[in-house]
Amino acid sequence: MAKGKTKTKNKSKEEINDMKNQNKYKRNRPPGN
């Protein structure tokens, strides 16, 4: 996370949002195995 600060703020925000969305889907979706 700390490394993201060196990037542009907009890009960091988008990346963080992507990570949040991925975590949401992972949590809502039952494990495949």
Question: Could you explain the architecture of this structure?
Answer:
The protein has one helix at 9-28. The N and C termini lie far apart (30 Å). By secondary structure, it is mostly helical. 61% of the residues lie in helices and 0% in strands. Residues 1-10, 23-33 have a biased composition (Basic residues). Residues 1-33 are annotated as: Disordered.
Write a concise synopsis of the structure shown.
61% of the residues lie in helices and 0% in strands. The protein is mostly helical. The longest helix has 20 residues, at 9-28.
Biggest sheet architecture: none
Q: How much helicity do the residues have?
A: 55-70%
Q: Structural class of the secondary elements? A: mainly alpha
Strand content: under 5%
If you compute it from the alpha carbons, what radius of gyration comes out, rounded to the nearest whole angstrom?
13 Å
Overall mean pLDDT score? 71
For the secondary structure, the number of strands is 0
C-alpha end-to-end distance: 30 Å
The poorly predicted ranges are none
DSSP helical segment count: 1
Shape: elongated
Kindly report the oligomeric state of this protein: single chain
